[in-house]
Amino acid sequence: MANGLLVSYSGYPFTPSSLCPDNGLAGLAAVLRLAGHAVRVLDYGTVATMARLYPDALSRRARPLMAGLAASGGRPDANLQRELLLLDRDLEAQQASELVAITDEISRQVDEVGAAFVGFKLWNGDGFLGTITIARGLRERHPAVRLIAGGPHATWFRELIHELTDVFDAIAVGEAEDKIGQLADRAAAGQDFGGIPGVSCAASQHVEPTSGVDLAHVPAGLYDTDTYPAMGGDEKLKLVVIDESRGCPYGCAFCAHPVESGPRLRLRPPALVVEDVEALVRRYGIRAFRFAGSSTPGSLMRDVAAGIVERGLDVRYCSFAHFASSDPSHFDLLRRSGLHAMFFGLECGSPDLLKRATGKPISIDRIGQTVAAAKRAGIVT
């Protein structure tokens, strides 16, 4: 058995979703727990982190400067430019100071649980650079602890991350549920990570994502405060993402989803999705969620909605959807089950451009009919 930590530092929170629970890390915690490992999720996408990165003094300085920038129409005078640059400098210094403090906190957690490994979810921008800073600090203090990186960012950039930094012992490429147990086992045994499918250990090693896990065998995420301390109090928005589907078969020319999760659509059985929803309500008191899939099939949404209604669950949720699979005859049922909104991807109103430029040959007539039917049912689109 290995003790481990899963860490998410995404930098400056920039959307409300930055404060939502991390379903990926909650799911990996469940996989590790089933395999007999002990794990704790340290999620820094919290209200407290916002207060640390944006202290009152800097926030008070920023308000009039932002108002002045808006009033200038994007053409600030020299004085405003100077004040903005000074503010930016001080915000960067504030983040650098907090990164030291966060590294200290994680280091104490490593000692407390006797961690054999620390898994980092990689983000972009200052979240990516901040995570590398934290990992370097842990490497200096705990040279025997194995440091692992994963997440969509790791899948997109793979061995290029090794070229930038040598701080990570391994990078998990693609979905991690099928490899996190092996990584934990080897960390506990002091073995290297070579030969694990979908795991990159050096810049010279090109690794392709593994084929994708069977969602019927993936456990629901763990959101209890013993495993996921940030779920306590009001630190996180209590809106959970549920993995009802992965992969996308449509192949739109502009979209990265088939690269991230594969072109083969994989569905979690609707009965299990309904059980996931009920567990959120019964175990955690969480009544708001959204589906994770980039284009949840209409038939899956229908079956899940029927199960929610049958069990009498009082929930609110939203979902991505696709015009090709959405059936307006289901919309009344979806609304009764608690569906509040559907996000449809409509990149252009020209049939010719939809077909030639985006690779998305959908009927404009069908688009109009689907949106009108959703609105009649009371679903925001």
Class by helix and strand content? Answer: alpha/beta
Task: Give me the side-by-side strand order of the main sheet.
Answer: 2-1-3-4-5-6
Report the oligomer.
Answer: single chain
Number of separate strands: 12
Give average pLDDT, whole number. Answer: 94
Describe this structure in words.
45% of the residues lie in helices and 13% in strands. The termini are far apart. It contains 14 helices and twelve strands. Strand 10 (288-291), helix 11 and strand 11 (316-321) form a beta-alpha-beta unit. The model has no long low-confidence stretch (mean pLDDT 94). The protein has helices spanning 23-34, 47-53, 56-71, 78-113, 125-141, 152-157, 159-164, 180-189, 257-261, 270-284, 298-311, 331-337, 351-356, 364-376; strands at residues 3-8, 38-43, 117-121, 146-150, 170-172, 199-200, 239-242, 245-246, 266-267, 288-291, 316-321, 339-344. The chain has 381 residues and is α/β, with parallel strands linked by helices. The strands form three sheets. Strands 2-1-3-4-5-6 form a six-stranded mixed beta sheet, sandwiched between helices.
Give a nutshell description of this structure.
The chain is an alpha/beta fold. The protein has helices spanning 23-34, 47-53, 56-71, 78-113, 125-141, 152-157, 159-164, 180-189, 257-261, 270-284, 298-311, 331-337, 351-356, 364-376; strands at 3-8, 38-43, 117-121, 146-150, 170-172, 199-200, 239-242, 245-246, 266-267, 288-291, 316-321, 339-344.
